[in-house]
Amino acid sequence: MDTIASLFSFITTPVSWVIVQFHSVYGKVFGPDTGWAWGLSIVSLVILIRICLIPLFVKQIKATRAMQTLQPEMKKIQERYKNDKQRQSEEMMKLYKESGTNPLSSCLPILAQSPFFFALYHVLNGIATGSTIGVINDSLLASARKAHIFGAPLAAKFTDGSSKVEALGATLTDVRVVTAIMIVMMSASQFYTQRQLMTKNVDTTVKTPFMQQQKMLMYVFPVMFAIFGINFPVGVLVYWLTTNVWTMGQQMYVIHNNPTPGSKAQAAYLERLTKHVTHHEKTRSRGEKAIVKAIVSKGRDRNEFERKFINSLTKVGLVAQQDGTVAKGESAAVESEDGTPTPAATPRRQQPKRQTKAQRQSAAAKAADDSAEHAADDAEPKTSLTKSDEPEDAKPATAAKKPTPKPAGGTRSKAQSGQRKGPQRPKSPSKK
After folding, report:
1. E-strand spans in 250-336?
2. Rounded to whole angstroms, how far apart are CA atoms 329 and 200?
3. Residue with the larger pLDDT of the pair 101 and 318
4. Closest by alpha carbon to 52, among 106, 109, 13, 4?
5. 3-state secondary structure of 56
6. Of 189, 341, 418, 424, which shows the fewest CB atoms inside 10 Å?
């Protein structure tokens, strides 16, 4: 153990110094030998470390989304070169290089945080064994050994025996109850963080092995925390519980304000953004402008949630600009589900309402009556109400009725069926 502690001495001394500085501040408020002073010192150390790791967390988000985008291409490479592992690895590295992604970027916050975790573990282990470490001298060591968090010493473990716990001034029951509760809270926070990532912030349109891997980790990580947690001192449990709570809150903020494209979180975010933009007719912050700018730049590659957002703005007479702003304007087209623009103001053709049988019969009877009335009107002679000034002899001869010529003798006026019109030649008698 001393050899391992010496390997981390370059980070153990700075960590112990930060804890002592926070302890000097909280000790004036709660007392130097209280668990609040030492516990809040550990919590403040976690917050300071996580603030410094925010740039790495941003890189982690970008790397994770880039990996999600590359999953379909990675799956094609795996299927194409499934019998050639070397060629498969070469194509994977080529894909990473062309897209500018690094698979290890998603692990940067954990890798950067690991040295601080080991340093804090060795500091608390020194307190438990009664040995000074870093800048913690004998007086600070005695004060830390007296500190209790809800009745459990700062350096006690779940697996410690009764004699060791009694030497730290506590009972075995108090230590195990406090450590068990903290382990459960630590595992539950880790499970919830991973679950909200899988259920809200994952592109549901693409089914890849990456999603199955993340779903498996959602159950593996809490079990790992529960197994290793029984061997951690109370101070380390405080450290990891604070870290998990910080990660959960940070993840919730990212999901709420910068969700993954195609996820349920993006659908909820664009719905909120649509209500705000249509009400104020403008984008509010740089983040909103960046989201709108990214959606406009995609063009026909937008997903269904992004097309719905653009169409909602179009219906109220707003147009999203390329710089992320929103302006008033008339847009002649909206986007369909496949991204093809269609006329926005084209009215739908309404189908005529189907009539019942009685309505159709009454309509037919009415039409027949109308046609009969029109026929009767046409048959009546039209008389003029005014007398003509011209004499009857002056009327044109065309008005006189022409005599109808009589048909020739031996012929009928109308041709029978199957015969030609006009006079017919008599048939010759058949020869017997």
Report:
1. 318-320, 326-328, 333-335
2. 34
3. 318
4. 109
5. helix
6. 418
Within 13 Å of residue 411, how many CA atoms lie on the same side as its CB?
A: 14
102: closest CA among 59, 55, 132? 59
Return the half-sphere exposure (C-beta side, CA atoms, 13 A cut-off) of residue 139: 4
Decide: residue 368, CB within 10 A, 0-12 exposed, 13-18 middle, 19+ buried: exposed
Lookup: tokens for 209: 């092995």
Return d(Cα 245, Cα 250) in angstroms, integer.
9
Give 206-212 contacts, CB < 8 A, sequence gap 24+. Answer: 206/68, 206/71, 206/72, 206/262, 208/68, 208/71, 208/72, 208/74, 208/75, 209/71, 209/75, 210/67, 210/68, 210/71
What is the spatial distance between Cα 103 and Cα 210, in angstroms, rounded to a whole number?
Answer: 12
Query: Residue 70, SS3?
Result: helix
The residue type at 59: K
Closest CA to 10 of 108, 116, 124: 116
DSSP state of 137: -
Q: Using CA atoms, how far apart are residues 407 and 386, in angstroms rounded to an integer?
A: 40
CB atoms within 10 A of CB 12: 25
Distance of alpha carbon 326 from alpha carbon 329, whole angstroms = 9
Query: Cα-flanking dihedrals φ and ψ of residue 314, to 5°?
Result: -65, -40
Question: For residue 178, what are its two tokens?
Answer: 């406090």
Residue with tokens 């700062």: 154
Distance of CA 411 to the CA centre of its chain: 93
The pair of structure tokens assigned to 290 is 């960046």
Q: What is the pLDDT of residues 338-353, one digit of tens each?
A: 555 555 444 455 556 6
Averaged pLDDT score across all residues of the chain: 76
Q: What is the dihedral of CA 338, 342, 344, 345, to 10 degrees?
A: -150
Q: If you average pLDDT over residues 316-323, what whole number do you get? A: 86
Q: What is the pLDDT of residue 23?
A: 92
Residues in contact with 220: Cβ distance below 8 Å, sequence separation at least 6, in sequence order? none
The single-letter code of the amino acid at 183 is I
* Torsion, CA 37, CA 38, CA 44, CA 49, rounded to 10: 170
